[in-house]
Structures are given as structure tokens and as C-alpha cells.
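Before relying on records like the one below, remember that each one covers exactly one chain. Contacts with other chains, cofactors or solvent are not represented anywhere in the record.
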Amino acid sequence: MKLIDPASRPANAFGRKEADLNGKNEAMETHSEAEAELRRARDVAEAANAAKTRYLAAVSHEIRAPLNAIFGYAQLLERDGAIPPVEAGQVIRRSAEHLTDLVEGLLEISHIESGVLKLRSDVVPLPLFLDHVVDMFRMQAEAKGLAFDYVVKGRLPRLVRTDQKRLRQILINLLSNAIKYTQAGSVALSVSYRNQVADFDVTDTGIGIAPDDIERIFEPFERGSSPGANAQPGIGLGLAITRLLARVLGGEIFVRSAPGEGSSFKLRLFLPEPNSARTSDPDVSWVTGYAGPRKTVLVIDDDLSQASVMTGLLRPLGFQVFTASQATEGLALAGLCSPDIVLLDVQMPGLSGWQVADRLRAKHGDAFPIVMVSASVQEYRAGGDGTASHDVFVTKPVNLEALLDVIGRLLGLEWQSGRAAQAPEDAELLPPVNAGRYFDKLRLLAKTGHVREIEKTLAELAADVPESAPVVAALRGHLGNFDLRSLVKMLDDVDPR
């Protein structure tokens, strides 16, 4: 029989109570921590909702303003024949350009943030690349009465490896803003390179940025609070895209500024020199055609303007192009024209592009590759894996270089090209009839550096004046090298009016 010391009973009872209290305290602490975590999650969710609301409000405002202008002038033209059509057309065109910039900017941000953006690994002739960018912006600065300084600190490598298109896009955004927000004085670009790291410094004597605004200006639709900041045209997406692209490329952007004292934006990027096995001069030529039998392209797109752009891009290079504006028409035409490749829009009335692709594969098998084209990155689906009906997905607006890469790879083409600077010497280019108004527009666009509009105008010229194909191909050569001075010179040589 075990004897229990009565004196130990209070101690045991006290121990049990203490353990019970400790357990309750731990439960209360756990409960408090859970409540705090819930509060933090709620605050984050509310902040996200507020940001989403501000974002949607900003998008709605940016869309509504140009739409009101288009709608208003359309009504005026319907009711009053005395309204000057040129003035109305200019307002409508500017409003449409604003909407296009807005949509493309939003798609760019969505593309980057969703991880769909694919970077290229180009071998870039850095000094030549920078000279072309500087030439374009020096003209813009001089047209505004500003001095433009370009300084190279130390030695620059002859070649570096990076995504040339994205680097150009970042520098264009930074230099465009510098000129836009500077009314007097100067804009400067200085470049230095050390240990495979490049610094691009864009400085100006403009209105400056308040310290509290420096982080905010990198948010979509945000601008600085300095006087005059909101008076400048634009959609407020440039810096947001610029910083996202810089980070995707593995770099960063730093800002130093003060109101009334100008601004300095520094882009720092890792730009390695190519391996010795790849240090030959990069191909800076532009495609003018391809070797071998002529290829047939079928474009299925309910947007006639998009089909026209595709035709204008491809026909001058020697492709036979057929277009269909409806899914059923495209399905029938595929059996008649025996295409070598099909470019198929995703969003169409009736049958979607995906359904059309399925039917084309069911009827024709692998007789031709199918390239899906869409303005929405949300439509993206991987292709070419043996299970999908399509081979490749590309986004609108279609970049000619990227499109030719896809077509060349899928059809095994050997591209023919000639250096842009040599184009006028390679053959005597005659001025095509009825191209004068296009040439005038191209001169103006080249002098203002509006590259995207130059490409659109060249596509329109190629589609409207088929005999201009040799001139268009040569002009695209200069545009591909970003050599706008040579482009203007060729326009003057071919059409010396």
C-alpha cells in the first residue's frame, strides 16, 4: 500500500492550477496573434481594393476623355456639314492615338507582371546603338530649343548582350520625359561602363520632382505634383513600364531630383560582353526577301485594318497573302489557297480562333503551321507541344522582327537582306506614283522620332501603292537600324520635291 504525504496535496493542486492557467494564457496569446494576423490580412485586402479602385478610376478617366472627343466630333460631323473635316480628323486621330497608347501600355504592364514577356539575347553594337538613339533625340531637343549633350565616360565595349528592343524602349521613355518636362536649358545622356555594368544617366534642367513624388511617379497613371507636371500630354504609364522592364532585365532605376532644379534618372544594367566565340559583327541588316519558292500566307482576322497591316508587312517581302474576315471564310479559303502558314486572330465573332485552329488541324493535319495572334495576354496558351492545335502564340501589336523570326523558324526560310546604309547604292530606287503624301508624312514622323507611326505608314504605303515595294523595303532597312537620318535622306533622294 502506497502512502501519500498529505503535505504534497496542496502543492500538486497548485501545480495543476498553474498548468491550467499557463494553458489558458497560451490559448489567449494564440487567439490574439490570430486576431492580429486577421487584421493585417484585412488591412492588406482593403489597401489592395483601394488601389484597384483608384486604378480602375484612372483607366476609366483616361479612356473616357478621348472617347468623348471622338463621339462629340462624330456627332458634329453628322449634324453640321460646315465643320472643317481636317480639324475634326486631327482631333479624332489624336484621340485614337491616345487610346492606342493607353491600351498598349496596359497590355505591356500585364505582359510583364504575368511573366509572359520573353526576353531576347541580342548581340548589340553598343556605340552604334547609342548613336542612333542620340540622333533621334537630338533632333527633338533642337526642335524645342534645348541643348542636347551626349557624353561617354571612358571606354564602351564594341558589343554587349541584352534585349536590344527593351533597352531601346527604356532609354526612349527616359529621354522623352526629359525633353517633355524641360522648357529651357538642356537634356543630357551620359554613359559609362565598368566590370560589365553600364550606367545610363539622363539629366535635364526641367521642372523637377518633389521628394514625396519620386516613388509615386513609378505607379501607373501617377504624375509629380510640381507645377506644370499635369499640363504635359501623356497617359502616365511610361515610367511604370520603364521600371518594370529595367527590373526584368536585371537592373534598376535611381532618381535624384528637386522641384525647379531638374532631374537625373540613372539606369544601371548588367551588360556582359559576348563570349569570344560570338564576337563577330552582329547582323545589323534588314530583311528584304527570302530564298526559294514563294510562300503563301493566310491571314484570318475580322479586323480588316489588322489584315491590311499584315498584308503590307509581308507582301513586299515576296509572300502571297490571302485574307479572310470571317472564320467560315477562312476555313474555306484554307482548302483553296493551300497556305504554307496561317496567321489566325483569337477573338472573332462566331467561331473563336481556337475553334478555327481545331477545325483546321482536324481537316488538314500538320499541312501548315498555325500562328495565333491576339491583343490579350490572358488568351496565351503554349503551342508546338504536339497536343495544341497551334504552333506559336504572338501578341498584338505585331512586331515585324518578331513575326519574321516566327515565320522563318516555322517555314525554315533563308532570309535575304541588305545593309540599310547601302540600300540606295544597291539599286536605283524610283519614286512610286501617288506616294507623295506618304513621303511627306514619313519625313515629319522621322523628324519627331515617332517610330511606331513610321512602321504603320510604311505598311499603308505598301498596301496602297504596291509598286512602292522596293522603296518600302529599303526604308524599313533604315528603320530597323534605327537610323532615322538615313531614312530622311533616302526620302529626299527618292522624292526630291
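DSSP finds 14 helices and 14 strands in the chain.
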